[in-house]
Design brief:
It is built from 11 helices and 13 strands. The strands form 4 sheets. The chain has a 6-stranded mixed beta sheet with strand order 10-5-4-11-12-13, sandwiched between helices. It has 2 domains: 139 residues, no CATH class; 259 residues, Rossmann fold (3-Layer(aba) Sandwich), CATH 3.40.50. The longest helix is centred in the N-terminal third of the chain and has 45 residues. It is elongated.
Length: 407
């Protein structure tokens, strides 16, 4: 027998009746507090789940139809809400009801998550209040990030044979992975910088550019074949526009060095350019890094890069070599060349540039120099066999695309 029934049937006087009348509102107040506490807890969890769902869906919004966004959003919300609340008691039916009232939409570049529902009360229904209305909403801005990647690749004579073959395969794999990840025109652009002691550009396309210096080496502009050597000391490791780029009449090791390609989203053309690479000449890592930086720069010579530090644009450089520095414009001192390489690495990694620099050592070369050149140790790869290159480039491509395509 309940306490209220016992009090009602008690014949010991009016005091018990008065007590029953007095305690009823008290019991209702206590029960209402319990209901309110439960509803408040669910409300907080609803808000948390709505916020996390909005953030999660913003990362995929650019690749999802409205229907898929709704379906994936409902599934994500259910998981987020369920992880915070057990399936026991009255909360189970509340959760299911709330799940079915969830909408996930995108307006412009914003993902909206709205959830409404009724929490069924336990005690407050004694006062005629059967449900408590609950609602939560979350928003997250989204947009397509842009990616710029410079491939700075050693094309020296020591890369001949399996190394250059595997490098071509690996670089094309990376290009194809980035192509698949690109969902909008010009979202992802790639530049190619093959290097030995010099770099090689399309003479017909660039012979009239004012940033070229034809005078220092007495170059005939009309018959220039497209090779460029180091700039003067102090400018050879950066992209300072104050100094011109010295042209040389003919490439030191012939014209076999593949042409550089500025930033482009022509993925098929990039694969063709990679296929044209051949192994010839000696090693000058600094010139490769300097032109890799130039290819990502918004200024001359190529001008295709977004301004350094632009919000929503991520820049990457992948530099690969298989040996020590051996020759540059200034001589063949390995020590001096390593110092210039270090300066070039530091220039690329300047905080204002916001370039993530990967370095790959293929079997030979100054491991300490290349490891310190990378943005951090996790971006340095020491490859002991050319056959490993495809896996390394795939790993880098996956890392770039998995976290960088939405914001």
């Amino acid at each position: 027998m309940s306490i209220l029934k016992r009090l009602a049937s008690d014949d010991r006087g009016s005091v018990n009746v008065m007590f029953a009348v007095a305690i009823l509102p008290l019991l209702l107040a206590v029960g209402s507090a319990v209901d309110y506490d439960r509803a408040t807890g669910i409300q907080a969890r609803l808000q948390s789940a709505a916020d996390s769902t909005a953030l999660a869906m913003a990362k995929q919004a650019g690749q999802l139809t409205d229907a898929d966004l709704q379906a994936k959003g409902v599934d994500y919300f259910e998981g987020a809400f369920s992880s915070q609340w057990s399936n026991a008691g009255p909360n189970r039916s509340a959760r299911q009801f709330l799940r079915n009232s969830l909408t996930v939409t995108k307006t412009g570049k914003t993902v909206n998550v709205d959830v409404k529902g009724l929490y069924p009360t336990t005690f407050m229904k004694l006062a005629g209040l059967n449900d408590v209305a609950l609602a939560a909403s979350g928003q997250a801005a989204w947009g397509t990030r842009k990616i710029e990647v410079a491939l700075v690749l050693d094309n020296t004579g020591s890369m001949a044979g399996a190394k250059i073959t595997e490098l071509k395969k690996a670089a094309k794999t990376l290009v194809s992975t980035l192509e698949t990840a690109s969902k909008e025109p010009d979202q992802i652009k790639i530049a190619l910088v093959p290097f030995n002691t010099q770099v090689h550009m399309d003479a017909a396309a660039y012979r009239n550019e004012t940033w070229l210096d034809f005078a220092s080496y007495g170059v005939n502009k009309a018959t220039w074949t497209g090779c460029v050597t180091d700039r003067n000391s102090g400018y050879d490791t950066n992209d300072d526009p104050m100094a011109k780029y010295p042209a040389v009449q003919s490439c030191t090791f012939g014209n076999q060095l593949a042409l550089m390609s500025p930033l482009s989203s022509n993925f098929g053309g990039m694969r063709t350019s990679i296929d044209s690479m051949s192994a010839t000449g000696n090693t000058n890592i600094a010139i490769g890094l300097a032109w890799g930086l130039a290819s990502l720069s918004p200024g001359a010579p190529f001008t295709g890069g977004a301004a350094f530090g632009t919000s929503g644009v991520d820049k990457f450089m992948i530099m690969l070599t298989d040996g020590d520095n051996t020759q540059n414009r200034f001589g063949d001192s390995v020590y001096q060349m390593d110092q210039r390489t270090k300066l070039a690495c530091d220039e690329v990694k300047k905080s204002a540039n916001k370039i993530a620099l990967y370095t790959i050592r293929v079997m030979n070369g100054n491991a300490a120099l290349l490891k310190n050149c990378a943005s951090d140790p996790s971006k340095y790869y020491d490859v002991t066999s050319a056959s490993q290159l495809n896996g390394v480039f795939q790993q880098i491509a996956d890392e770039i695309t998995s976290i960088r395509l939405t914001m």
